Amino acid sequence: MPEQQGGQTYGGSSSSFLSPEKIRGNIDPETVIGFLQSLKIPEGPKAGEPLRLAEYQKRFVRGAMAEGVMVGLLSIGRGNAKTALAAGIALGSLMGVWDDQPRREILMAARNRDQAKTAFQFICGFIGGLSEAEQELFTIRHGSKLEVEYTANGGGLARCIAADGKSILGGAPTLAILDERAAWEKDKGDTLENAILSGLGKRDGRALIISTSAPDDANTFSRWMDEPPPGCYVQEHRPAFGLAADDPESLLIANPGASEGIGASLEWLVAQARRAIARGGSALSSFRNLNRNERVSIENRSVVLTVDEWMSAEVTPEALPERRGACILGIDLGGSRSMSAAAYFWPETGRLEVLGTFPSKPGLEDRGAADGVSGRYVEMHGRGELITMGENTVPAGPWLAEVVRRLDGVAPACICGDRFRHAEFAEAMGKAGLARVPFIWRGFGWKDGSEDIERFRRAVFDGEVKTLPSLLLRSAFAEAVTLIDPAGNAKLAKARSLGRIDAAAAAILAVAEGARRIARPERKARVPTWV
Predict the structure, then answer these.
(1) Residue limits of the Terminase large subunit-like ATPase domain (predicted)?
(2) DSSP three-state, residue 186
């Protein structure tokens, strides 16, 4: 997904600080920018110098503080000063620079106390750069509670808290900052978020939700970015998926501060990307997620393939091998409401094609919302990777006939499927006129599953699988993990209950059978001997 350069709002002239014309709930963004640039940098090589906002920071302030906006959302790579920016805004709100409500309440929430302390230290650092007379108006508490109290201009209290919803029930914040929201624990994080947002309306409060990208579309922060409700401003710095980790232009999209002297330089980011590429595995996935701001799972110990490992099998249309030789058809027959998937694999050339199918009810948009993937299914349908058939269920016989029809009159050499669905497959093949096609029964348990997964991985690593970039397959492998038994055998499983791994299962079946056929020695006819 490309960066949203100007941000999106769903749903002025500069002025002096503490202006008497301040209107409740209406903030002049230029006042916020002016205050931030009056502060001094608290730490680092430029400590003590005046703070100068980069253009992307000004854009976020103007969008998040615009009239009618209640929630400002910022997604950007690590090290681009988003916590420092939020801390400066928190300090200005605490001092009543643009809000003169008495007894203002500012919350800065993070996943744990250590992360909350980082924001707290930024606030204290900015206070240390103020005049001595101004510093006398603050009371800083470093004990069990991380708090900053301000006594002038109606007074205010800023608190830094960890993600425990019970700690702020009954609060009425005028400003709430949710830092690194994607990293919060799901249940406690959602509880805290709901408690904070429910209190904002009491005093016309605003929330700033800032984070690097979540590892998947189902994360609450991803849902905020993809499906923002009215009254939200969204600014996301995320490069398009599928680019090389060390691509300089996309690194600058995720790290706009690199070109403006904030955080790491482009040279450092490129060098780190190349180290991560060399190390591979979790190092590369973490770099993509944290430094490139991509939605890439960082759970690598049990995944079937990492994103970069799978992307090595993707080729351009010009480089895609032709359909030649025997075609192996891998089938994952879905249940009453789940996806059915078919994978076509030509072992002779290594060409792989995959097709997914859902029933038409509910629609793809509603199904995507229910599965936590937003509009992904609609996009797959537009790319021709996903079709709908039937109403509430996918009819097995007609669907299997449609799958074979896409081979343009060529019968598959064999079909691989789950032996657990033996009776259903037999009926479907009879209805599709495929009763004479050999069927190879495979299990998804430890025995067959472990062999198929290992053969599939080996074929991908050896460059024996080639396919066009497929959102269906990328999504499936992002959700596919392996469960390991005490003997080291692996079987396929979902990373989350709502994940769809049917396309990955079908591909593994087809490629593994193709690998077995290639490895099987050809039988040579015996020369007859006359006696």
Answers:
(1) 74-214
(2) helix
Whether residue 80 sits in one domain with residue 228: yes
Alpha helices in 408-468 (DSSP H): 422-431, 446-461
19 pLDDT band (50/70/90 cuts)? very low
Q: What is the mean pLDDT of residues 57-65?
A: 94
Give yes or no: residues 316 and 272 share one domain.
no
Residues 259 and 384 grouped into a single domain: no
Report which of 500, 56, 457, 411 is spatially closest to residue 263, judged by C-alpha positions: 56
Token pair of 491 as six digits: 């079987």
Convert the pLDDT of each residue in 108-136 to its tens digit: 998 888 888 888 999 999 999 999 999 99
Asked if the structure places residue 115 within a domain, the reply is yes
The burial class, CB within 10 Å (0-12 / 13-18 / 19+), for 441 is middle
291/372 same-domain check: no
Query: In a 10 Å sphere around its CB, with 0-12 CB exposed, 13-18 middle and 19+ buried, how is residue 260 labelled?
Result: middle
pLDDT at 14 over 70: no
Each residue's pLDDT tens digit, 194-233: 888 888 877 888 999 999 998 877 788 988 998 888 889 9
Secondary structure of 91-138 in the HEC alphabet?
A: HHHHCCCCCCCCCEEEEEEECCHHHHHHHHHHHHHHHHCCCHHHHCCE
SS (H, E, C) 298-358: CCCCCECCCHHHHHCCECCHHHCCCCCCCCEEEEECCCCCCCEEEEEEECCCCEEEEEEEE
Q: 362: cis peptide before it, omega within 30°?
A: yes
- Look at 14 and 153; give whichever has higher pLDDT: 153
What is the rounded distance in angstroms from the CA atom of residue 105 to the CA atom of residue 83? 18
Do 282 and 201 lie in a common domain? no
My answer on whether 375 and 466 are in the same domain is yes
Phi/psi zone of residue 213: left (φ > 0), alpha (ψ -120 to 50 degrees), beta?
A: beta
Q: Are residues 258 and 199 in the same domain?
A: no
pLDDT above 50 (res 4): no
pLDDT at position 43: 81
Helix or strand run (H / E) with residue 222? helix 220-226
CB contact set of 516 (below 8 Å; sequence gap of 6+): 455
264 pLDDT more than 80: yes
Express each pLDDT in 371-411 by its tens digit. Answer: 878 788 999 999 999 999 988 888 888 888 899 889 888 88
Domain of residue 382, residue span: 311-516
- Look at the chain and report how many structural domains it folds into: 3
Last residue of a domain, one of 279, 299, 319: 299
